[in-house]
User: Fold this.
Amino acid sequence: MKDNQGTELVRGDLVLLTIDTPVEHPAQLIIYLNNKVLTYMVDYTDDNEVDCQKEVTINTVHYYPISEEGLEVANYDAGVVVEHMHRQKEFEVTNVDCKHLLKFDSAGLRGYSKTLYDSIQDLIATAANVVPPEIEDISAPKTAIFQVENNGEWAGVAPTYTYQWYVNGALKEGQVTTVLNWVFGTPADIYCEVTATNLNGTVSENSNIIEYNGT
Assistant:
């Protein structure tokens, strides 16, 4: 979706939302999440009493307001325990047109608004790798066994991890646990791709490479 200046909006943008109809907060700063468009046909009778149809489009914008309540809901949606929570999803507003939205530069935020903005942004961010994952050789005699020693370090809300092993640069189908049993005596370069997923998306990072010499 674009704002009233023609700028394409993406998840996490700071936006000024204004609405024509009477609402509790007719203009407010929000963090844009996404929009969903519903199009359907409506039957009506024109001035000449002729039965007609017209296409109606409803555009719904999902967002978090830059407010205490917005932060509370963002925490709840991210899986953080919030006592006495009365909402269970992001905010939404319907019948939104481009004229109702204006992208703002977050650098202009100051004080408490900036604190709220940063806190919500942290909650909606995808996981980001800080330290790559590590694998180790745990082979016993006459075996070739490798395992993920640690998942590395990740920023972002509560990621879960999945695994995919690679041998000599080629993906090993079905090898999706933290342990790889390789063919003893067969040299290979081995690493594991660790994928971190939270409610906001998925990011992958490769481990170190072990150069197995076959012994």
User: Anything to note?
Assistant: The chain has two domains: 14-124, 128-212. The chain has a mean pLDDT of 89. The first strand starts at residue 14 and ends at 18. The CA atoms of residues 19 and 26 lie 6 Å apart.
